[in-house]
Design brief:
The structure is a homotrimer of 343-residue chains. Chain A has 343 residues and is an alpha+beta fold. The first copy, chain A, is built from 6 helices and 18 strands. In chain A, helix 1 packs antiparallel against helix 6. Chain A is globular and about 80 Å long. At the A-B interface, loops of A face helix 2 and helix 5 of B.
């Protein structure tokens, strides 16, 4: 069960062409394409006639023709042809979904159409298209519920144990983080002065000494975690000799046990260095592979044992616990019948 | 849930030898063989002692010996040996099923034994053994409920979209069919004058002009669809320059989501041309592979969403809808307790 | 559902080292290792913090460190470190299980800890460590409920049909066994005078004539079957020209449909002949492979059809039937609430 009245990332903008692309999002099978004019379109991937996947059909100009009996829908979903029948009712149509492109991603709205306001797309991703910041984004697949990935990101102490080859150092395990929870705002901050630089930081910024390392993360319901990161040579406050980036993680649910992991890593240094970009892409994918191995194993256990059977809690569990509450509250609110305007 | 008081094709006659052959039919595991005299025999594939598959045993003459503890049954199912025991009760036996060979197929009756009348085997398959007609039959496996294949065959407009490489032309999509439903009789007829010949028709009969194309199909409950087909050069009515065949489709259920697709294509031209026979075999198997791809995808959707959630209906849906009613009625009738003769 | 207040073999002693070994036993995921001092230790394979597998962590000396957030437990399960926190409650701990090594096997107790008495480990396995007997043991995996393997062993008439290449001869199928049931004692005895020696007996003892063959088996609840075997040249009673061994079968449940088959075959002849040992190991594994093929097929049927639907019973079914009762009684007794000492 996932919230539906929200924007989910459905694809990287670069993934969509004038061709059919299928993807399941929050348990809904979706087929997407661009019209000849480049406008992104999303249909439920199910012909309303015999329920076969529309993704097995073909584009006829900007229209989508089912591959089984040839019934054809224009890009708004309206039926424009039933082979062998001269006329058919006006209400024949396929289901489509609001879709918007922003920050290099394609966003879809699966809930009530009239609530689909593009202004609700989280501004926290704007660093991907901000001047002075070099964009980098990619896609990753994990066979686990997206909540387990949110839990993972909201307690970064695991970096010290799971990611020693890239972003982990001892300090991130040992330094208590400061968690601030105000209503639906969740923020976790950790400042690690004079610590050993993680391997990836050395590779990216050439640190030769200890560093002052900073991370601040916040949760954007229902499934985005943004991490502000900077590091400078210890004690120098010299940002020109350091690094800064945002780690943007948007964890679109596929099903109750699988997730589309869309990520971005805009940075403010060596913006034109494509070798640096590809080095960072590889390092992030490696890091997330380490998370995936652990979290897919955790999912197999949670398939049988509820998380509530845990008996050890840490202070670092506050943020993930609050994030779970917020998402559960969104789901609960969508399920309850609307309150009448007057009693 | 499938009707049981009916004949299902269990095998091509050519498949059965003096050896054990196993196949699941309508959710019942069956093991079949021929006696030395060539008589076909069918057992439930389950030893009544420890429930292991009898198909893992061996033939001892015409008797079937379980491979686990050696208990042996004659070809009528009567127990003839329990190793280590000199005597055993007369009622020890394995379950067998009525079985009949006709039209090149082996037919099995899974329901009440006393109702198994060979005269109920559909005569519609007789063209396979009629003088002047060249027989051709084969077997195909589909991971979908047999009803989806029946739906498919009872609305042939899909040929125009799914089978453009073999039997599809534009006419079969655009020409409305005439559906006649009288009680449990379902017939669909389509005459397509002066149309482009489908590729397979050209390959089979060498058409060089447009053709008049005819198809008439009818449903034989619970799972057979027979299609009469002919085509002649347009406007000529010259059957000597045309082709005629019957497409016989008998869709024996294996389980609730898999089907044994037995088919035959008796034809009245080039009866001794084995190259033609093999060309047709390949073309039919290719055509049914195209159906299979679509229908297995449809099954995966129907595993989660009921067909009743469809919102677009066409006139061509009448025949498949009626066929579903007929089969549901057969199942319903078998499930209700017999009515007492008098009240 | 399996009894828990009993000792199960969890591993061959030779399998455990100062490294993490995981195995599921009676539906519980377990991780085992030896301390530096060689003491065997067993944990529930689940970190009490986030429920990830502890087997994905690492040994830190004799302590077990979770691979996710680095929480660390000493070999008794007591938490000794939570990274980033200076102190934590005394009750933080991971679940461990009593474990004992005996007769070359590692035994685990999954039930109430205070009832774990090492004296309950079955003495019937002692031949593995008895002077004058050459030990031999191995491990085998079967995808079936352990009860089906117990059934199998308690009716050895199947040897005549399933194991003709190793231990089967006609006599074991044809000679009725004597079954003795007294309370929870189940014993089956079969003496086969002047019979053809099975192939493996010839290979092991070089018989050139018929033999007198003896087997006596008994059941040790919940899952061990021990078989005493001897054979001598027919009519000679000359044990120096014969063979004797014990076939020890301990069928630790993994899940409701899979079993860890631990076996041993201590023998009293050619004790120092390692080629003989390896020949016997190969022959036993081959024999059990034959059982496995049959029993995994039986399991697939029992997934759908209850064993109670069987209609053929033999006298040889008495022992397996009684063993099932005994195990069911153990489970039943563990599930009912303890009776108050006084009313």
């Amino acid at each position: 069960m996932f919230p539906k009245n929200c924007w989910y990332i459905a694809a990287l903008s670069s993934e969509l062409r004038h061709a059919l692309t299928k993807r399941t999002i929050a348990n809904e099978a979706i087929v997407m394409y661009r019209t000849a004019a480049g406008v992104a379109v999303a249909f439920l991937d199910r012909c309303p006639h015999r329920l076969v996947p529309l993704s097995m059909g073909r584009l006829d100009g900007d229209a989508l023709q089912c591959g089984y009996h040839g019934i054809t829908f224009d890009h708004t979903g309206r039926c424009v042809r039933v082979p062998g029948e001269e006329s058919f009712p006006d209400h024949f149509c396929a289901q489509t979904f609001p879709i918007v492109e922003r920050f290099g991603f394609v966003w879809i709205w699966l809930g009530e159409r009239e609530k689909a306001d593009a202004e609700l797309i989280p501004q926290a991703l704007r660093w991907q298209s901000e001047p002075g910041w070099c964009p980098l984004s990619d896609y990753f697949y994990v066979t686990a519920h997206n909540q387990l990935l949110i839990d993972n990101l909201l307690d970064l102490s695991h970096e010290a144990f799971l990611h020693q080859g890239t972003i982990g150092n001892q300090a991130v395990g040992e330094t208590p983080a400061k968690t601030t929870i105000r209503g639906d705002q969740i923020e976790v901050e950790r400042f690690m002065p004079d610590c050993t630089p993680p391997k990836l930081f050395v590779a990216a910024a050439g640190f030769t000494t200890n560093i002052d390392r900073y991370q601040r993360l916040f949760f954007v319901p229902p499934c985005t975690v943004v991490i502000e990161v900077w590091a400078v040579p210890a004690g120098t406050q010299d940002k020109s000799k350091g690094l800064a980036w945002w780690v943007i993680n948007s964890l679109t649910p596929e099903t109750d046990r699988s997730t589309h992991y869309f990520w971005a890593l805009p940075r403010n240094f060596k913006q034109d260095d494509t070798a640096m970009t590809e080095m960072l892409r590889a390092a992030v994918n490696r890091t997330f592979s380490e998370d995936r191995t652990m979290i897919e194993a955790q999912q197999l256990i949670l398939d049988k044992v509820p998380l509530e059977s845990r008996t050890v809690y840490t202070r670092a569990d506050q943020a993930p616990a609050r994030a779970r509450q917020l998402v559960a509250e969104l789901v609960r609110r969508e399920q309850q019948p609307a309150t009448p305007a007057s009693a």
